[in-house]
Each structure stands twice: as structure tokens, then as C-alpha cells.
């Protein structure tokens, strides 16, 4: 089936099953099916009508109400103009004329295209007695001629919106899957059915013991008046909806729908026999079903051990309103003796001998298990792959291998922060020396007076944050800043901006050296979510929810490390926890809650691993070593740097790397500003 494609690809380890012998479905008459685990006669738990009734009543009491009006169920058949003209020119019976007169009093469906199908479960449903009385009072309702299946027999039916004929054919295949063909004739007048029929199917099957298993549907085809129409499947946590692909307006008239689909995992393995429970009447219809019935077809004769059919719903269940008759050696027919009203159905439970079915292979068990619990399996597998990958990466980080390399920026602020993990007054003075080297400011000292003189307004060689910090010293049209106690407030603002710049620079540097690991972890997480979404009917919706939730989760967890003050950290981390819980609720709406927890844990592992990589003992280790090598380079080339004119190019780094004592310049050199920086430290402290 299409939605299992990702599961099959993901579990390529079982590819050997592709070479298994294939037997066509047709021609099983001569094959003897048996359960290899069965020894002796099957031990059958006979389900009587009372026990089955108790089971259904419990299910009805626990059933959740679904707002069908929130679903996209727009559908219609647009009739050909030639067909309309042909129908108009033909002679009409008096009943057809009365029907058209009744329709003329009903507002056109095209004038109310914004309305949705009325949901029987979204409003109060009258009890069965009231519905039966209303249905029997049809004397004033016009009648029309409708050609009903299976032989297109002309019959008079009320000119009111209802289903005059419903027949469900359940064919149990030897593989254990059930092919269902439903023929539904509807009378539409533009009220409930102005946008056509959509089917609601259960997502889980239950047995009498109350155990549930997830069902897998595949649409074979849908036709309306023998015209093929495209339908697709959508799902929520409890139901699967068969919806039309395109939106049309359904003109008033009589239509015969034919739904064909296959259900897998519908048979519940009870050990010595298989149990089938299905509502062959489909209690999701929001209108009266005048005639309802079903046919159960088994792979071979004597396969049916016993069956029970109840008519009704939450207002009552009856075992004497369904006629059961054999229909050949391999089938049984069920016909309701009265109409099915809103919220009612034909509830069938059948026990089937395991001899009628092929033994379930390991591959089938694996696929069915993945369909039922695949979101948890893939979430666990994705978490393990990412965790193991990061552990292997950490092993190579310890050996200083396999990491992306970036050129180290040799600014004095960054070098000091990297090598000594420190921001202090020496860092600030190092920045001033760097601005001096770039000819942005001049540094002068006369006695006890220290002046910073702005040389140019062109600060393009500095980063924007550094330009903003330097602007705190030279406000308005000032070009000279006097370093003294009187200007200490301005100087502190300048220092605070530089500190923010260093922190931001280190943050971006950590992100840059971790980008490869972040992309890998995120890609693996999204791949896991893609495979999980491949198991769902609404792939795009599920993947969109999971993808956005994971990306938001990763971004939110990064906030955990932001904040310097204690109360700010507490506030941010409280927000992170609340936001993660919100994401958990959102993801649990489309996948299993435990799988959602595993995906959020995977996102946390990605951020945690990157956080460890960013530490000084992680990926930073290589660049710390490189900064130390640069310091050693300066020492090794001491003589050439001091004697040459290149000293001014290394002066800021010499100061920031605590090499001022080793690089004293003899004589009165204008470019030698290290003593001035020492005076600033002596004045303000370190």
C-alpha cells in the first residue's frame, strides 16, 4: 500500500522477502489452508447476542463526537449539458413532476456554497421512535421513480433526502485482508448532500474483549453513476475519512455511489480462530437508510464458524430485526427488516476458521506491526542513530579529526577570549590598539592626560557592533575623548558594548564550527519524521506539523543557555519548558504521544551535543590551540617583529596575549602605545 512505502524502504534489511514465491489470489479453491500452530479442533468462544450487545453499548458510551463540519467534504457531480437537455425533452411522469416542484421550493445549493454538510454528531439526534414516526408520515411527501441496484429496478421513493438503497459486500481474502464494496443510492435535494457523499471509517478495530488494533485502508476506486471519481483518505486520531479530491456542487437528483476499498488488519487473531467486527450499515450516515444489507464472502466453504448481527446504535440494539440467510457455500446475507435511522448501523461479528486463511508471514507481521507502532519504532531508531552518530563524532573530536576548519580571526578581543577565556580591561585596550592600527583613532599621552582622538568617520574596517561601541566615546561632533574619572560613565558604556560584541562574536563562532553537526542532526530528525509521516494518510499535514514542531523545539532549547542574570535565566527556562509541553500536545495530535516525546528528546540531544561540542574541551580545542600557536609564533619571531616596522601590526595581539614584557621597544617610538595602555589600566584597574 502506498503509505507503507516509506516503511518498506526504511526496513531494507528484510529485502530478502522480495524473492519469496508469489501465489495469485484467484484459484485458491484447490489449496488447503491451515494454521501450523493449531493442534486439534479450534477452541471457539461463541459470542451470543447479549454479550455482543454489551460490547457495542460500551463502545457507544465511549465514542467521541467528531465535528464533521470541520472536514473538507465538498463534492458533486456536474452533469453534461446534453444529458440535461435530453432529460428535459423526455416525457416525465407525474411523480417526477411533483419531485421537481418540490425541489423548486428549496433554495438552490449554488446560493449556499459556503455551507458544509450537517453533521449528525454535531447536533442533537432525535431518538429512534421520533425518527420512525417522522419517516412513516410520508403521505404528503412527493414520490419519484428511482432505479435501484443491483438490477436498476424502478421503484417509487420519497422525494426527500435519504438513502433508499445500501448494500455492503465484504470479501475476506485468503491473505486476511477484507475487500469491501459498498453500493449506495442517494436522493439529493441540495440540503445535506449538496456537496456529495463522504465516508467515515474507524481507524481502530475492536474485538469483544475490548482489545484494539489499527486498520490500514487503501482505496481501489469510487464511482458515481458509473463515472469514476477521485477520492483520497484523511484521518484524525479515531477515524479515517474518504473524501473527494475536487470540489463540486451536487445538483439535486438521484445518484448511485460505489465505494471499493481494502482493509488490512481487520481480522483479530484470537489464537484458534479469527474474529471480525464491522458495521456493515455504516452508522456515520446523517440520513435515513430505507433498505440496508450486507453480504459476507469467505475464501472457502465451512470457513464461517458463527456470526451475530445487531441492528441499532446508542438508542437501542436489536437482534430480531435482521434476516440472516446463506448465500451459497461460502457467503451469508444480512438484510435489515426496517430502515436504519440516524446513528444506527448493522453491526456484524463473525468467527472465521484459521483454515480459510493463509499463514501470516514474518514480513506481513513486521509491516502490520510497523503500521500500528511504526511512529514509535522510527522515533526510537532515529534517536539511536543520532545519539550514536554524535558519540562517534565525539570520539573523533577527542583525536582532533574530521571537523570542519575555519580561518581563525586574530582580533585582540577574540584572541584573548579564546586563549584565556577572559574579558577585562586588557581586552578593551587591545581593541583601542587595533583601532589605532587601522588608523581610526590616535592615542596620545601627555603627563597624566590620556587622549583618544578620532581621525576619520570611515569605520568600515570595524564590525557594526564595534562601530556602535566606539560611538559611545565620540558622541555628536566630538572628536576627542579624555580618559579620566570625569568621563568614566562614557567609558563604562563603551566597555559594556564591547563585552556584548565579544559574547556575540563567540556565539556566532560556536555556531559556525557546529554548523555541520547541526545540519546533520536536523536532517536525520526530519528524515525520521518523514518516515513516520509516510505511515499516515495525511502525509503532508503530519510532516508539516512534525517538521515545524522540531525546528521550533531546537530553536527554543537553544534559549536555555541564554541569560546572565539569575532571574532572566529562570524566566527563559520556564518559557522553554512550557513551550516544549505545548509542542508535545500539538505533535500528539498527529502521532503517538510516546513517539512525540522521543522526537522532542531527539531535538534536545541535538542541542545538548552541540552545546558540548561548543565547550573549550570540544570543537573549540583546536582553535584554542591555534591561538596558542600564534602566541608562540610571536615569541619565536621576537627580534624581527621588534626591530622591523611590522611591530604596529602585531602590537594589539602582543598586548592582548600578555606579551608586553617580552616586546619592549627601546627608544622613543611614536607607534609604541603599550605604555599608554598600561597607564589606562593603572587609572581604572583591570
Q: Can you describe this structure?
A:
- The structure is a single chain.
- This protein has helices spanning 5-10, 49-62, 81-89, 94-104, 128-136, 362-398, 412-420, 425-437, 464-471, 488-534, 539-558, 566-588, 593-613, 620-636, 638-643, 647-656, 674-684, and strands at residues 143-148, 153-158, 162-172, 178-188, 199-202, 204-206, 212-214, 216-224, 227-229, 231-235, 239-244, 253-264, 267-269, 274-279, 292-297, 304-313, 316-318, 322-326, 331-336, 345-352, 441-446, 449-454, 480-483.
- It has 17 helices and 23 strands.
- Mean pLDDT is 77; it is low at 1-45 and 64-123.
- By secondary structure, the chain is of the alpha+beta class.
- Strands 9-8-12-4-3-15-19-18 form an eight-stranded mixed sheet, with no helix packed on it.
Amino acid at each position: 500500500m502506498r503509505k507503507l512505502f516509506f516503511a518498506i524502504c526504511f526496513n531494507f534489511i528484510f529485502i530478502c522477502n522480495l524473492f519469496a514465491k508469489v501465489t495469485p489470489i484467484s484459484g485458491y479453491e484447490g489449496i488447503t489452508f491451515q494454521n501450523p500452530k493449531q493442534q486439534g479442533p479450534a477452541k471457539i468462544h461463541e459470542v451470543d447476542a447479549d454479550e455482543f450487545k454489551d460490547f457495542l453499548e460500551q463502545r457507544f458510551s465511549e465514542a467521541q463526537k467528531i465535528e464533521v463540519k470541520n472536514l473538507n467534504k465538498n463534492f458533486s457531480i456536474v452533469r453534461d449539458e446534453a444529458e440535461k437537455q435530453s432529460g428535459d425533452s423526455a416525457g416525465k411522469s407525474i411523480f417526477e413532476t411533483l419531485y421537481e416542484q418540490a425541489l423548486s421550493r428549496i433554495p438552490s445549493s449554488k446560493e449556499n456554497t459556503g455551507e458544509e454538510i450537517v453533521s449528525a454528531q454535531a447536533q442533537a439526534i432525535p431518538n429512534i421512535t421520533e425518527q420512525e414516526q417522522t419517516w412513516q408520515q410520508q403521505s404528503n411527501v412527493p414520490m419519484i421513480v428511482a432505479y435501484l441496484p443491483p438490477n436498476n429496478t424502478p421503484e417509487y421513493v420519497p422525494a426527500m433526502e435519504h438513502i433508499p438503497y445500501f448494500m455492503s459486500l465484504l470479501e475476506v481474502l485468503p491473505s486476511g485482508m477484507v475487500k469491501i464494496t459498498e453500493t449506495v443510492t442517494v436522493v439529493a435535494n441540495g440540503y445535506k448532500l449538496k456537496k456529495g457523499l463522504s465516508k467515515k471509517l474507524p481507524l481502530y478495530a475492536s474485538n469483544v474483549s475490548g482489545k484494539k488494533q489499527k486498520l490500514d485502508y487503501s482505496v481501489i476506486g469510487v464511482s458515481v453513476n458509473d463515472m469514476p471519481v477521485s477520492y483520497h483518505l484523511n484521518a484524525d486520531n479515531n477515524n479515517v475519512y474518504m473524501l473527494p479530491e475536487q470540489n463540486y456542487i451536487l445538483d439535486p437528483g438521484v445518484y448511485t455511489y460505489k465505494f471499493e476499498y481494502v482493509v488490512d488488519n481487520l481480522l483479530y487473531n484470537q489464537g484458534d480462530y479469527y474474529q471480525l467486527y464491522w458495521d456493515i450499515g455504516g452508522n456515520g450516515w446523517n440520513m435515513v437508510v430505507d433498505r440496508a444489507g450486507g453480504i459476507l464472502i469467505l475464501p472457502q466453504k465451512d470457513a464461517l464458524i458463527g456470526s451475530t448481527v445487531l441492528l441499532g446504535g446508542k438508542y437501542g440494539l436489536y437482534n430480531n430485526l435482521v434476516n440472516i440467510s446463506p448465500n451459497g457455500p461460502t457467503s451469508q446475507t444480512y438484510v435489515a427488516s426496517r430502515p436504519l435511522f440516524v446513528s444506527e448501523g448493522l453491526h456484524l461479528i463473525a468467527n472465521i476458521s484459521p483454515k480459510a486463511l493463509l499463514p501470516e508471514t514474518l514480513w506481513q507481521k513486521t509491516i502490520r506491526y510497523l503500521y500500528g507502532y511504526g511512529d514509535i519504532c522510527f522515533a526510537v531508531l532515529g534517536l539511536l542513530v543520532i545519539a550514536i552518530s554524535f558519540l562517534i563524532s565525539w570520539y573523533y573530536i577527542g583525536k582532533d579529526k574530521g571537523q570542519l576548519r575555519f580561518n581563525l580571526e586574530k582580533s585582540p578581543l577574540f584572541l584573548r577570549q579564546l586563549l584565556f577565556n577572559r574579558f577585562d580591561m586588557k581586552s578593551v585596550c587591545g581593541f583601542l590598539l587595533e583601532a589605532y592600527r587601522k588608523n581610526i583613532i590616535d592615542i596620545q599621552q601627555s603627563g597624566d592626560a590620556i587622549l583618544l582622538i578620532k581621525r576619520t568617520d570611515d569605520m568600515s574596517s570595524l564590525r557594526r557592533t564595534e562601530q556602535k561601541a566606539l560611538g559611545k566615546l565620540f558622541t555628536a561632533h566630538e572628536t576627542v575623548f579624555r580618559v579620566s574619572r570625569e568621563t568614566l560613565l562614557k567609558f563604562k558604556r563603551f566597555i559594556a558594548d564591547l563585552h556584548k560584541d565579544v559574547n556575540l562574536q563567540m556565539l556566532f563562532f560556536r555556531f559556525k564550527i557546529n554548523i555541520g553537526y547541526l545540519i546533520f542532526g536536523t536532517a536525520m530528525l526530519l528524515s525520521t519524521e518523514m518516515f513516520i509521516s509516510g505511515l499516515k494518510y495525511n502525509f503532508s499535514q503530519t510532516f508539516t506539523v512534525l517538521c515545524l514542531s522540531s525546528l521550533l523545539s531546537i530553536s527554543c532549547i537553544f534559549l536555555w543557555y541564554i541569560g546572565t542574570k539569575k532571574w532572566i535565566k529562570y524566566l527563559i527556562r520556564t518559557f522553554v519548558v512550557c513551550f516544549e509541553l505545548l509542542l508535545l500536545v500539538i505533535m500528539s495530535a498527529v502521532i503517538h504521544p510516546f513517539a512525540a516525546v522521543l522526537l522532542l528528546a531527539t531535538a534536545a540531544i541535538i542541542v545538548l551535543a552541540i552545546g558540548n561540542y561548543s565547550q573549550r574541551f570540544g570543537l573549540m580545542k583546536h582553535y584554542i590551540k591555534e591561538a596558542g600557536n600564534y602566541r608562540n609564533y610571536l615569541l619565536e619571531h621576537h627580534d624581527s617583529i621588534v626591530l622591523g616596522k611590522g611591530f604596529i601590526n602585531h602590537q594589539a595581539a602582543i598586548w592582548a596575549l600578555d606579551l608586553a614584557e617580552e616586546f619592549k621597544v627601546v627608544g622613543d617610538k611614536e607607534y609604541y602605545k603599550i605604555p599608554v595602555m598600561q597607564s589606562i589600566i593603572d587609572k581604572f584597574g583591570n
